[in-house]
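Troubleshooting log. The previous structure file for this entry was overwritten by mistake, so regenerating from the original sequence record. Sequence copied from the archived sheet and checked twice against the printout by T.R.
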Amino acid sequence: MLSGPVEGVDKAEKLAGELGIRRVIRLNVAGAFHSTLMRPAAAKLEVELGRIDFKPTAFPVVSNVSAKPHGNPDEIRRLMVEQVYSSVRWYEGIEWMKAQGVTEYLECGPGKVLTGLVKRIDKGASLHSIQDPSGLG
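Regenerated output below.
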């Protein structure tokens, strides 16, 4: 994955074609998320998160930053900030969960992108998707 200013991405796309890379997919996103260009936004988020009283999690939450579980308030806050500018370690996180015996996954929200990604990593997983609150009942 590549993230950065539009001009740089344009140059990289051109170079990829020259190197024989046949397919480049541009994602329609509002910013250079998960790149160091987002550090100023992360700093602002850190200030706002400092105003929130987080509680320890009731169950492990696997971070996309570390691909490991976390749950204490300081870790939650730190990892939420780092998530803005860090690479997403989705594959490693799913592999960690598989190694812990996780076999069922639930995606909440519109679409099934994450469900599809899990399916590629863990072909034996039981996958569920709730599109909106009506799917809870």
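The CA atoms of residues 46 and 80 lie 8 Å apart. Archived copy saved in two places this time.
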